[in-house]
Design a protein that fits this description.
single chain; 146 residues; mainly alpha
């Protein structure tokens, strides 16, 4: 066991009057600083509280705007999907119309060839009839009435 007092100090505390005055002065200054700090701390806390409320309001506004923008984005994406569907339908309709146009154009060309061939046949037949009529007239046979 040690012969020192239980506080762990080697020599006993002895204070002089000057030390007591200095300690009292320090204690008074710290108390006044604490009072000044506590009043400024209260003001700071109130300012911080007001700032927190202001920031919470701004966060609420931003969240509201964000939800509005998200809704608008969803609406626009839906409209884009509708327009894409409409474009696909119109593209399919255009392809079908183009195919029908090609088919009809081919059919018209074939009919024109047929008409040209029939005109040629008609001209040939008219020519043959004309030759027949001439032969009949040359042989003095009467021409039948048409």
């Amino acid at each position: 066991m040690s012969s020192y007092p239980s506080s762990g100090r080697r020599r006993p505390i002895t204070r002089t009057e000057a030390e007591e005055r200095a300690l009292d002065k320090i204690s008074r200054e710290s108390t006044s600083n604490t009072n000044g700090v506590s009043s400024s701390t209260n003001q700071t806390q109130e300012q911080l509280h007001d700032k927190v409320i202001e920031l919470q309001d701004r966060v609420q506004q931003v969240m509201f705007l964000y939800s509005q923008l998200d809704n608008e984005k969803s609406t626009l994406l839906y409209e884009v999907d509708l327009l894409k569907d409409e474009l696909e339908e119109k593209d399919a309709s255009l392809n079908l119309s183009s195919r029908e146009c090609r088919d009809l154009t081919s059919e018209v060309k074939a009919l024109k060839r047929t008409i040209d061939a029939l005109h040629a046949t008609q001209q040939q037949l008219k020519s043959e009839i004309s030759q027949r009529d001439q032969l009949i007239q040359v042989r003095f046979l009467p021409v039948p009435e048409q």
